[in-house]
Amino acid sequence: MPQLARLFFYEALASLALMCGIIAYKGKRTNAAEIVLKGLKKLEYRGYDSWGVAVRSNHTKQISIYKRTGKIGELNLKNIKLPVGNLAMAHSRWATHGGVTQKNAHPHASCGNRIVVIHNGIIENFLALKKELQKKGHKFISETDTEVAAHLIEEYLKGLRVEGRGLRVQKLKEAVQKALKRMEGRSAFLVMSTDCDAIVAARRGSPLIIGKGQDGEYFIASDIPAFLQYTNRVMYLDDNEMVVLDGGHEFYNVSDGKSVKKRIVEIHWKPEQAEKGRFPHFMIKEIMEQKETIHRAINQEEKLIMRVADSINKAFGTYLVGCGTAGKVCMAASYLFSKIAKKHINVEFGSEFPNFHHFIKNRSLLIAVSQSGETADTLEAMEVARKKGAKLMTIVNVEGSSMDRMADLAIHIKAGPEKAVASTKATTSQLAILTLLAYACAGKLNEGRKVLVEAASQINDMLNPRYEKYISMLARKIKHVESMYVIGRGMNFPMALESAIKLQEVSYIHAEGFAGGELKHGPIALISQGTPCIVLVANDETRSDVISNAIEIKARGGFIIGVAPQREEVFDYWIRVPDVGNASPIVNIIPVQLLAYQLAVLRKNNPDMPRNLAKSVTVK
Ligand code: AGP
């Protein structure tokens, strides 16, 4: 393939790879198909445009596959007519570039359905492998790279019809292992076979979690909520590892086939936390949860906070690293460390961090900030820092995630599952932890706690129905605008950038954030009659300057929406926030989250599943 075409092709595949959902069941229950399809529905928030399920019949030992484009909808399994079986797997796929066809939906099978595969990720060398397999007589049905995996595994089993269940499982494991060694790229695979009632899963770069239920019952999923109603006891598959679930579990290293020991970890999420409950969308539910999540976040063991603070104080350079919203949180934190602890902290986006590896020494400290703990760019930054011998820490929501396991020390933000693509409660919890750390570095942990406890209770009062109504009224006023701008200064400048992300991702309105002082160096040229501009104000030394910036914008026709503790004359519209000192970034971002949500709903966008985006970006 010419290089450019190949590039576009991989880009397209990469975008497919981002959002797929995976769930499998192996156990005593005979309604495996129903279990995995219900689990798949719990992953719907990831977005998808086709789906499929494979079940191994207890009666015939054959594998039935059912796949469709569109949404799963209300499940009526009677219409689907899947066999009774206690081994099944399901997959949801999101294609952004063509290819939304039943044939391309997963699962994919080898010739004669002997091997069935579901897959997240990209098999980069699939074209070469496909040609090789075609020469050997394999017939391909779909246009996907995944189908290659099914044929390749089958190829390694060709002519092998071994007797004895144990041996058949062993041969399947070996065939999968051989195939994995041939396939390039970041992926997660699940493999079933008509040969035996085992399931084999492998990971290289794309997360897979194994849930251990009662009596030899197992689940495998890309996301814990898919099986949380059955078990909270999980094991994590690491990169270059595979697992065989066969009534028990055996983990192996893919390279040498040697057994790997795994620890069972208990997840502290409750199944109902991963449901929408009385809310129409996850996004609004998660915004409202901020009434309690800040309290949970700061309720940390003093010893842990002090250990991290001590490491920051002693490090020869601390780097806060995150992507997207988490990156903006890191930026805000650097202002807080400067102001509260008189400390300089370096901030880098995950994707840019490798460019600074020259400065990383074994006494450097990298703190990865993330909701999912699976963002590929942030993980790469950690890998780069690790190679240089730096200390690794993380502030993360998903316990047991790759970052959590990779870090020397982790602070869990305890926000509970965040399912809407737009991060809300995880953002403010990360901000709360970093604020606390800044105080701890200054030897003022108790003062920090006081500020944050006060902010948390003020947020509880702020998020009332009247407040929501007021913001929804504003959303109706501006729902048709083409562009919006957000400005802030000091610790609210990164929040202006974060506000823009929130507005972009769910409302699809063109939004940009600026440092107030930068306006006159260019961006003010964008302001025309009626352009909405949100001004984030803190009651601190930046207040009068940012208000002056608002006046400059208003003089050019801008419509000023002030997010501030007090009303200012320049505001056309005032969104009141509590005066909470250094917790200002936390309270100022919440009304913008609400506004973005309301705009999304008014503009008939699905706020939980914005176009082209994935909750967790596990590819580079
Ligand atoms: C947030 O609204 C975005 N969806 C996105 O920028 C996100 O913050 C980013 O991808 C990082 O994710 P993480 O926190 O899971 O690492």
Describe what this molecule looks like in 3D:
Helix content is 37%, strand content 20%. It is α/β, with parallel strands linked by helices and 620 residues long. It has 3 domains: 3-272, Glutamine Phosphoribosylpyrophosphate, subunit 1, domain 1, CATH 3.60.20; 277-463, Glucose-6-phosphate isomerase like protein, domain 1 (Rossmann fold), CATH 3.40.50; 464-606, Glucose-6-phosphate isomerase like protein, domain 1 (Rossmann fold, 3-Layer(aba) Sandwich). The strands form 4 sheets. An 8-stranded antiparallel β-sheet has the order 3-2-4-1-10-9-11-15. Strands 5-6-7-8-12-13-14 form a 7-stranded antiparallel β-sheet. Helix 10 links the parallel strand 16 and strand 17 (346-349). Helix 16 (493-507) runs parallel beside helix 18. It starts with a helix and ends in an 18-residue tail after the last helix. Residues 1-18 have low confidence and may be disordered. Residues 323-326, 370-372, 375, 378, 421-423, 501, 505, 616-617 line the site of 2-deoxy-2-amino glucitol-6-phosphate (AGP).
